Amino acid sequence: MFKKILVANRGEIALRVMQTCRELGISTVAVYSTADAQSMHVKYADEAVCIGPPSSRESYLNISRIIAAAELTNADAIHPGYGFLAENEDFAEVCASLSIKFIGPTARMINQMGDKNTAKATMIAAGVPVVPGSQGLVTDLQEALETAQKTGYPVIIKPTAGGGGKGMRVVHEDSQLDIALKTARNEAEKAFGNSGVYIEKYLENPRHVEIQILSDQHGNTIHLGERDCTVQRRHQKLIEETPSPAVDDTLRKKMGDAAVAAARAINYEGAGTIEFLLDRHKNFYFMEMNTRIQVEHPVTEERYDVDLVKEQILIAAGESIEGRTYTPKGHSIECRINAEDPEHLFRPSPGKLEVFHTPGGHGVRVDSHAYASYVVPPNYDSMIAKLIVTAHSREEAISRMSRALDEFIVAGVKTTIPFHKQVMNSQVFRSGDFDTGFLDSFRFEKK
Ligand SMILES: Nc1ncc2cc(-c3cccc4ccccc34)c(N3CC[C@@H](N)C3)nc2n1
Ligand SMILES: [Ca+2]
């Protein structure tokens, strides 16, 4: 078992990982930029190393500085959290070459799943349903036209080197294809340094349903159910829940089995998530595979009564998950509390927290690094807390979430709390019958 783990991240996930390390008796090393000198994860860790100025490029994205901190403190493993270097194959490779255990899959696996076109080919080989479209990358207009005519409009052009919606273009007819292909390739080159794009049939307003996977180093793979992440704004997830209101037991088994087959096919190691698009006819299609712990992991932890960060660490240390069974129980919903102003296009609202009072009570969990007098820095993402609520049914979870949001008092910055309150009270959300277009048509009522 590891003696010391360096957490190469900040904010709530850094604290979350350190909490599990402390429970396992593993000492912790924090890395931080000068902007995070007063951050909770720095105070909480057994050791802390300042790795640079506020800019991510010179701190949390700087491989050599993080490795230097690991060597300096003699850490025997690194947990990357999510974002930053969590899916960076060079980082995983450098750790491996220095015999510092990267808590996650190998560099090869990160690479294989990071390239969306390669990931898709791998899924086809594993028998996982994928969206019909081009066989591989599309470079010239002629090939694009043939693919689009074979697939049928509308089609979507997607960058192979990244997810998250950047460089995507939806095309409805031949005349638009030339421009769309050029702009998609340009945007992809600018955003990812790789202009590779592929084409898929465009599914109108699907749901986003993802399956949590756990695979150990001994060939065992299990799934821990689904998370519905359909409530998103500009490709940013805002609300996640499990179970999905759109998934029944039959579909859950099909999606779970497909996700397990995919992980087995690539001999996956660690915690991973297979993201699917789910259409109105309950057909599901592979979208992406994430090779990291995700922001929304707590809803799965609450329903399956599992510490996913603990599982990651035990698996990285070589433990087997053979024979592990989980009985899912309850309905869990997460709201991401961001320091953003819902009355002004969710623009960031950094600043000092004059008041930070978190809700409590049975079935209420708050994952946060924030505290009263903490200054939310403008340099990083705006999430200051995750409010996770669990109850026996979806209806009960929604009313508990609504009550907890009322008690979540933050002053000094604007937050998404009032927005979440309105979503929880909306008929459409309560009906469970919505798709990824939900927020496009959701009007936030300014008070
Ligand atoms: N073939 C096909 N059809 C419709 C799609 C629609 C989306 C999409 C677009 C906009 C918001 C979304 C929210 C959740 C899930 C998917 C979406 C989509 N992606 C890919 C990256 C992800 N962040 C959004 N891929 C799609 N692919
Ligand atoms: Ca992804």
From TrEMBL:
Keyword line: ATP-binding, Biotin, Fatty acid biosynthesis, Fatty acid metabolism, Ligase, Lipid biosynthesis, Lipid metabolism, Magnesium, Metal-binding, Nucleotide-binding
Domain Biotin carboxylation: 1-444
Superkingdom per UniProt: Bacteria
Domain called ATP-grasp: residue spans: 120-317
Classification via SMART domains: Biotin_carb_C
Manganese keyword on record: no
Pathway info: Lipid metabolism; malonyl-CoA biosynthesis; malonyl-CoA from acetyl-CoA: step 1/1
GO biological process: fatty acid biosynthetic process; malonyl-CoA biosynthetic process
EC annotation from Swiss-Prot or TrEMBL: 6.3.4.14
Catalytic activity: N(6)-biotinyl-L-lysyl-[protein] + hydrogencarbonate + ATP = N(6)-carboxybiotinyl-L-lysyl-[protein] + ADP + phosphate + H(+)
GO molecular function: ATP binding; biotin carboxylase activity; metal ion binding
Root EC class: ligase
Oligomeric form and interacting partners: Acetyl-CoA carboxylase is a heterohexamer of biotin carboxyl carrier protein, biotin carboxylase and the two subunits of carboxyl transferase in a 2:2 complex.
NCBIfam families: accC (TIGR00514), PRK08591.1 (NF006367)
Function: This protein is a component of the acetyl coenzyme A carboxylase complex; first, biotin carboxylase catalyzes the carboxylation of the carrier protein and then the transcarboxylase transfers the carboxyl group to form malonyl-CoA.
Protein name: Biotin carboxylase
Organism: Chlorobium limicola
